[in-house]
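Field notebook, page 147. I keep forgetting to write these up properly, so this time I am using the form the group agreed on. The chain and the ligand, S-adenosylmethionine, are recorded exactly as supplied. Prediction of the bound pose follows.
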Amino acid sequence: MAPAVNERLVDVGTGTGEVLRQLARRSIVPRAVTGIDASRAMLARVGPLPPGWRLRVGAVRALDLPDASFDVLSASYLLQLLAPVDLPAVLSELRRVLRPGGRLVTVTPAIPPGGMARPIAAALDGPGYAPAGSVPRTASAEPGFRA
Ligand SMILES: C[S@@+](CC[C@H](N)C(=O)[O-])C[C@H]1O[C@@H](n2cnc3c(N)ncnc32)[C@H](O)[C@@H]1O
């Protein structure tokens, strides 16, 4: 994702801030970074961040952010937690806050079809577990995203 110093990055589902900490350790540190999570308790565990970086409580389905306000959007271990039926609307919302040509970076575990992996994942994460490959497939189908 390599954000430049002048790029604005938002990390959705930031949790306890692992992506933010990794970014802060890089040699080039973007000045404007926002971490968003639905859980205030998770955000309370983020710890100190570089000056100017901020945290907000918010849901990925309706981000309280202006259109085209970020160059890079990261979503790490978030999208597979959503109900597959919600993915198109969520991806449109992510697209809305990215500027034209902005980058979406996701880390989404793939659960192989067949065998016991899927029932176990569904039991652990709930019925909304997105099938392997559905996130990139849905993103590619979404107007405005180019995989
Ligand atoms: C598995 S954690 C991943 C945290 C972090 N991105 C990481 O890679 O370590 C998923 C996070 O997404 C948040 N989350 C789940 N559903 C969400 C939603 N609809 N909107 C915003 N955050 C959500 C959870 O509160 C949790 O902190």
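OBSERVATIONS:
- The chain has a mean pLDDT of 87.
- The longest strand covers residues 98-107.
FOLLOW-UP: compare against the apo run.
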